[in-house]
Structure formats: structure tokens, C-alpha cells
Write a structure and sequence with these properties.
Elements (H helix, E strand, L loop, with lengths): L1 H4 L4 H9 L4 E2 L2 E2 L21 E5 L2 E5 L9 H7 L3 H7 L3 E8 L3 E5 L3 E4 L4 E4 L10 H9 L7 E5 L1 E2 L4 E2 L37 H15 L5 E6 L2 E6 L8
Antiparallel strand pairs: 1-2, 3-4, 4-9, 5-6, 5-9, 6-7, 7-8, 10-11, 12-13
Length: 240
């Protein structure tokens, strides 16, 4: 916390601001005013907040809240948090659920109501490509989708994303070269015209292809001691 608070970035200034009164000899620590800020829940093994980073994807959860947090509930607990995140120059959009509108993606200059096919202001997903909405809705449908999903900014001019962890490359979210995976396959195996969204659909396609190229089960006479039996050679590779 001390290192971050001394950083001359926007986030560093925010940490420094909120850690005032907790700095002693230049180190961020317990409240130097002597006030008791304990909530009475210090023995609770469940944390109040959980934040994880995966490349350019941020996952924020409030484990003590039952079910998935909605933007309406979040506004009661932490007003303006979503707007603050979305306004950060390193954040492209924030995905959160709404009791009234379902999945919504909030950007600095607009909101995409994904399940209502409605956009207010500028679409925060536009810069990430034509399949972005389908990918985000797929993530939204996961039973363990985080309360708040944060996707970093993508800069077209440099083809780079703002990574949330110190990596040479990035992964997990949308934007940049990671948005262009490929499958190398024989030309006689047809690729779906509608394209592929999601790893599970790649699996189903591979299973279909396997069914097309797998040899049909064959039967052959095989001599065995004392009798003649017929056994299946399905799955064996024929020399012919």
C-alpha cells in the first residue's frame, strides 16, 4: 500500500487520498489518529472484497453479499463506484448485472444494455470488434461470473491493451492480438459460416470433425486357439 500510495499515477493518488490519517513515518499502517475502526467482523473468514487480475481482465467480488451483486445494490453500498471505474483511462468497460435491465456494459461515455439491445451515449464495446457483445453475454451467463468484470482499454493506434498485471503479453480479456485466435485445419473440414463463439463451441466442432474422419467400425475374422472368433477393429489404423 505504501508503494502504491507513493506512485504518481491516478490510482496512486487515489490510494494516497484514502489512506490519509493512516500514514506514520511515511508508511501506510493503522489509523494514526487512534480511532477504533474495527467493524466487529474481524474474525469473519469471508473477506468483504475480493479483487483478481488476469491480463487485461479484472474480477471484483463482494463475497459477503448473497448471490451476484447488482448495480442497484452497489449504488446503495458504494455510490459512484461503477462510474469511477469506467472513467479511469485504463478501463475500457465495466460489466455488471442489473435487476431492471440485465447485463449492462458501462464505459466512460456511454452504456450498452446488452440484453435490451439499447445503447445510451457511445457504445463502450464498439472498439473491441463485432463479436464483443456475444462474448460478453456468454461471460455474463456463467454461474460464477464476478460481481463486477472490468475490461481494460484498447488503443487502436498502438494495438495494445492496459494490462492489470505485469506481463509482456496479455490474456483473459478483449482487445489486441489476443482477440485473433486461429484454428489450422484441412480445407475439406468445413468451418461454420456463422463463426465460433466460446471454447465449448470449438469443442463441439472438433467432435463433429472427428466423426467425419474416424474410420467406420470393421469386423474381421481372427483365428484364436481352438476356435474362430470375430472381433472389432474399430479405432485401429489400417495399413491400406
Amino acid at each position: 500500500m505504501t508503494e502504491v500510495a507513493n506512485d504518481k499515477t491516478f490510482f496512486g493518488r487515489m490510494v494516497s487520498r484514502f489512506s490519509r490519517g493512516k500514514v506514520e513515518d511515511g508508511e501506510v499502517g493503522p489509523d494514526s489518529s487512534g480511532r477504533d475502526e474495527s467493524t466487529g467482523e474481524s474474525d469473519d473468514p469471508i473477506p468483504e472484497l475480493s479483487v483478481m487480475a488476469s491480463g487485461c481482465l479484472g474480477l471484483i467480488n463482494f463475497p459477503r453479499e448473497p448471490g451476484r451483486m447488482t448495480i442497484e445494490r452497489l449504488e446503495d453500498l458504494h455510490p459512484a463506484l461503477i462510474e469511477g471505474l469506467a472513467a479511469h483511462p485504463g478501463v475500457g468497460f465495466v460489466l455488471i448485472n442489473s435487476e431492471k435491465h440485465g447485463a449492462i456494459a458501462v464505459g466512460a461515455n456511454g452504456t450498452n444494455f446488452l440484453e435490451m439491445d439499447l445503447i445510451e451515449g457511445e457504445d463502450p464495446l464498439e472498439t473491441f470488434g463485432p463479436n464483443t457483445k456475444a462474448h460478453v453475454l456468454r461471460t455474463h451467463s456463467f454461474p460464477h461470473c464476478p460481481d463486477i468484470m472490468v475490461n481494460s482499454t484498447y488503443w487502436h493506434e498502438t494495438d495494445e491493451v492496459a494490462a492489470f498485471e505485469e506481463l509482456v503479453g496479455s490474456h483473459g480479456g478483449l482487445g489486441g492480438l489476443q482477440s485473433f485466435p486461429f484454428v489450422l485445419h484441412p480445407v475439406d473440414l468445413e468451418w461454420p459460416e456463422e463463426g465460433i463463439i466460446g471454447a465449448e463451441n470449438i469443442y463441439h466442432l472438433f467432435k463433429d470433425w472427428t466423426g467425419q474422419i474416424a474410420p467406420e467400425p470393421q469386423s474381421s475374422a481372427v483365428d484364436s486357439p481352438g476356435s474362430s472368433t470375430r472381433t472389432s477393429t474399430a479405432g485401429e489404423v489400417s495399413a491400406t
